[in-house]
Batch of 2 targets.
Target 1
Amino acid sequence: MTSSSQPLTIYLAGPRGFCAGVERAIDIVELALRKYGAPVYVRHEIVHNRFVVEQLEEKGAVFVEDLDAVPSDKPVVFSAHGVPKMVPTEAERREMFYIDATCPLVSKVHREAERQHKNGNTVILIGHDGHPEVEGTMGQLPEGAIQLVQSEAEARAVEVPDPERLAFVTQTTLSLDDTMGVIQVLRERFPKIQGPKQEDICYATTNRQQAVKALAGKVETLVVVGAPNSSNSQRLVEVAEKMGCDAFMVQRASQIDWDRLNGVRTIGLTAGASAPELLVDEVIAECRERFEVTVDEVRVTQEDVQFKLPRAVADAAA
C-alpha cells in the first residue's frame, strides 16, 4: 500500500521501550545459551513480551512454568519479575544450576519486605493480584506476613494486627499517581506506617509515564507497543486515558485498527519497558505506508542506568 496525502505527525515518547532490568534479563538468557549451550530453561516468560520470548526460543531457550519441567542437568534462569523464595530453595534441594535474572530493583523490594518483617512489622504490598512480581514478593515472607492492597478502596478496608507495627512496599511497575493515592489513604489510617526511603516504583516506569503525560496533551491518540500481561505497558494506556487522551495498545503493527486513525493528524507512540525498539520502528514503517509521516521525539529525561550481570554469565559477555 502506498502512502496517502493525509499528513500524520508521530511524536515518539522518550524514554520508551527496554529498561536496564529487561536488557539485563534478556542478556542473561543469551549469554547462558552462549556459555552453556542450548537448551537453557527459563521459569516463566523472561519478560512480558511475546516477540522477545519467541526470539529467545529460536536461539534455544525453553520457557516453563514449573521446575518439574526442567531436567536436573540443564541451567534454569529465573525471570526478571522475581520468584518466591521457595523456588531457589527447591532448585538447591534438587541440586539444579540456576541463574537469577530478577531485576535488581525488584530484589530491592524483596530485601525491604524482609527487613520490615524482621523488625516485627506487618507488611502491606501495594500491587496487582496474580502478577508474577507480586507473587515473588509475597513469597519472600511466611504466609500471612504480607497483605496485598490493590486500590484506595482496599486501603480503606484493610485490617492489620497492630497499626503501630506496619510498613508498606510497592510493585515496581504501577501507576505513580494511583500508588500515591493508596499510600495517602494508608498514611491517613495508619500514621505510624513505615515506607521505603524512596518510592519502590522503578525509575523506568516513572520515566515512561512522565513521557506519556508530556505527549497526552498534544496528540489525538496514543499508541502503546506492549503486551496485555505487561503491567507497565497497561499503566501507560491508563495514564494517557486519565489525561483525556485516546489510547490503545498493540503487540505488533499488524494489530493496529487503521480505521481508528482515519482523520487523525497527530499520534503519540511509546513502548512498555519489555518491548524492543524494533517493534516501534515497525509501527512507524507501517504508518509511512499509509500516511505522509513526520516523526518528532518528546524526551523528558535521559537514562543511563546499567546493572551488573551475575557471575555465572559475566565472563561470556567478554
Note: The chain has eleven helices and twelve strands.
Target 2
Amino acid sequence: MSPRLAVFCIVLLDIMGVGLIIPVQPFLAQHFGASTTVATLLGTTYSLMQFVWAPVWGGISDRMGRKPVLLVTIAITLIGHIAFAASHSLIALFLARALSGIGAANIATAQAVLSDTHAPAERSRAMALIGVAFGVGFILGPLLGGLLSQVDYRAPAILAASLALVNLLFVALRLQETRPAYAINTTTRRLRLSALFSASGQLRGLVLTTLLTMTAFSIMEQSISLYIGMKWAPQGSGSRIQLASRLTSTYLVTVGLSAIFVQGFLVRRWLKTAPEIRIVRVGLATLIGSLILVPVLGAVGSFNLFLLSGATLALGSGLFNPSMAGLISKSCSEEDQGLGLALNQSAVALGRILGPTVAGALLAVNSAGPFLTGALLTTCALVTALRLRITR
C-alpha cells in the first residue's frame, strides 16, 4: 500500500473517532453538572495531553521508527474512547479525554511518514491529503455522532472505540516502516519542547504563526456548539441535547465537505504554481473574515445561512494547514522531520489548550466575544506571517 493511502486511512479513522464525540461532548458535560466554562475545559484537557506528548512521540519516531509509535498511540486512543463510553461522572469524562489526547498526539508522526517518502517540493501537496482525511472524518464522524446521540449518549464513543480497533489492526498489518533503517536508533534528538529554543528563527516564526492561528481557531471550535445551542436550542426547549447535537453535527458536516474540496482540489492545484507562504497568508486573511462572519450571520437568525460561515472557515483553514506543514518540513533537516513536525503539532495543541480555557468565559460575557477575539489573534498571526522571510 502506498504511504499516501496508508496515512489517509490512519488519519481518517482517527478523525472520525474524534468527530463522533464532538457533537455530544459539551452537552454531556453539562448533563453531569458542568458550567459552560467547565464544559469547554474538556477540550483543554484533550489538547494539554497533545501538547505534552506530541514532541515526545515525534522524537521517539525519529529514533525508533514511525510504525511502533502509531501502534502505541492508537492503542491509547482505543482505551480513551472505551473510558468515555463507560463514564458516569464529570471526572471520568476528563480522564477519558486525557487518555484520548495522549493517543491523538500522533498526527505529526503520520505527517512524518509522508516526509519520509516525498521530496521536499512534493511535501505540501502530500500534506493536503491529510486535510482531505480530516474533511472526510469531520463529515462522517459528526454526522454519525449526531445520529447515534439521539439513541444513547454512549453510542458515539462505542463506535469511536471500534474504529480505533480497526485502525490498530490496519497499521499492524498494512503499514510499512518508512523511517530509513540506517536512521533508526542512531539519532539522539531532544524529546522536549525546549528543542524549539535551539531551532532556527524561521522555524520559530512558523511555529508562532501556528500557535496564534490555532488558538483563534480552537476558541471558535469550542464555542460554536454552545453558540448554536444558545441561538437555535435555548435552555428550556424540549430534547435540547439532541437538537443542539444535531445542529452542531450539520455545521461540522458543512465544514468537512468544504475542507475536502479545498484541500483535495484547490490547494493541491494552487501549490503547483504558488509558494506555500503565499497560500498561508491568504488562508489567514480568509480566516479573519470568516470569524467575523460567524456572529454577523448568527444575528441574522437563519441557520441555513449560518452554514456559510462554516464553509468559509474550512476554506481558510484548508489553505493554511497543509501549506504550513510543508513549510515546517522544509525548515527541518531530514534527521529532524518527526521532531520538527511534532513541535508544530505541539503549537497546535497549545492553541487548543489556550482557546478552550478562555472560550467559555468569552461566550458568557458576549456571544460574539469568542469569534471577534479569534479574528484579532488571527490578525496577529497574519502580521507574523507577513514578516517571515522563507529561505529554504
Note: DSSP finds 14 helices and no strands in the chain.
